[in-house]
Specification:
Helix content is 59%, strand content 0%. It has 71 residues and is mainly α. The longest helix is centred in the middle third of the chain and has 11 residues.
Amino acid sequence: MNRIKEVLNEKGIKQTWLAEKLGKSFKMVNAYACNRKQPSLETLYEIAKLLQVSVKDLLIEEDNQENENGN
């Protein structure tokens, strides 16, 4: 799972901007942001660089995810 959508919102950046910078379709970036699809490691590093965050800032650890879901 990733936090791409949250980080984009925190920074006030649109998914369309990210899609353009990555050279990917909006549909693909939206799938990443909504966790319907996970980006490759290479793409994840590129996203982190574009958003000026650590790759760790884009990831949700499994333990944290379970806590957020109330499990």
